[in-house]
Automatic annotation (TrEMBL):
<keyword id="KW-0238">DNA-binding</keyword>
<protein>
    <submittedName>
        <fullName>Tyrosine-type recombinase/integrase</fullName>
    </submittedName>
</protein>
<dbReference type="InterPro" id="IPR002104">
    <property type="entry name" value="Integrase_catalytic"/>
</dbReference>
<dbReference type="InterPro" id="IPR013762">
    <property type="entry name" value="Integrase-like_cat_sf"/>
</dbReference>
<dbReference type="InterPro" id="IPR010998">
    <property type="entry name" value="Integrase_recombinase_N"/>
</dbReference>
<dbReference type="InterPro" id="IPR011010">
    <property type="entry name" value="DNA_brk_join_enz"/>
</dbReference>
<dbReference type="GO" id="GO:0015074">
    <property type="term" value="P:DNA integration"/>
</dbReference>
<dbReference type="InterPro" id="IPR004107">
    <property type="entry name" value="Integrase_SAM-like_N"/>
</dbReference>
<dbReference type="InterPro" id="IPR044068">
    <property type="entry name" value="CB"/>
</dbReference>
<dbReference type="InterPro" id="IPR050090">
    <property type="entry name" value="Tyrosine_recombinase_XerCD"/>
</dbReference>
<keyword id="KW-0233">DNA recombination</keyword>
<feature type="domain" description="Tyr recombinase">
    <location>
        <begin position="112"/>
        <end position="297"/>
    </location>
</feature>
<dbReference type="GO" id="GO:0003677">
    <property type="term" value="F:DNA binding"/>
</dbReference>
<feature type="domain" description="Core-binding (CB)">
    <location>
        <begin position="9"/>
        <end position="90"/>
    </location>
</feature>
<dbReference type="GO" id="GO:0006310">
    <property type="term" value="P:DNA recombination"/>
</dbReference>
<dbReference type="Pfam" id="PF02899">
    <property type="entry name" value="Phage_int_SAM_1"/>
</dbReference>
<dbReference type="Pfam" id="PF00589">
    <property type="entry name" value="Phage_integrase"/>
</dbReference>
Amino acid sequence: MPRNDLISESYSQPLEAFKIWMKQSGYTETTKKEYLREVVDYLISLNEMPVQQAGKMNVVAFLVCKQDTAGDKTRNRTLSAIRSFYTALIDFELATKNPAMEVKKSKTDRNRVPVYLEEDDLEKALSYVKGRYRDRNIAIFLLMSYCGLRVGEVHRLNLSNFKNSRGILEVLGKGRKWNEIPLPELLIKHLTQVESYRIQPYSNREDALFVSQKGRRLSIRQIQNIATQVFIALKEDNPHLADLKLSCHKLRHSFATMLLKNNVDIRVVKELLGHASIETTMIYTHINDEQKRGAMTTIKIPELMC
């Protein structure tokens, strides 16, 4: 039996409000499906208790029930979904409090170093972008690794977002927030070339910058597959990368790390990445062994007299 059939009719309005709120907030299709699944499971656990009456204990009890089969990352995603659910209800005046905000997220991953590619490995990766639509796919790879775009942001790009004369790309990010990204000169030239050889869309109303072979907007899954094929080939020829779990988002990590290694102010990095909080940007301020050794060479220990 589908989970939605187990939901009491009393939850139909809150669920509909949540769907509308997520769409209005610009959540990706993947996030909407995951969050909706988590919230449906949470509502089932309430056993027909009105959502307005649920408290911190109900949220914690639900998370505890999942902890045997879910790690800290999954727990945090579940908590984020429930927090967003109550935020939507408050926004639509269907609730007055958010009990999930009283529950702390797991801190176990806070000190984990993000996975990223070094600059020379990023350059190598570009040579593995091949195929009939190589120029288009290189542009996609460049936008993720040298401009820090999320895969969903690349997917949403329209022709009208590329301001050639100003050298700027208008990016629609999380929460439907717009961000202007100044583009490097070489990328402007490449995007101009890609624009001129763009595949003719199936519909004349299609404004997508990146179009698939079938004439439709390139999907998120297709973009991910393009990157995956590059990573597979890159790892085969570079054993030192074999254990890295690479993905489109790891290219964004690489971009952020590159900027910080080049001593770009973290506040500027925050704006380029489109982060709401600088705390999110702080995860990229990881220190490698070479930097540690360099720091220690600045220490002058006095010679002790015997």
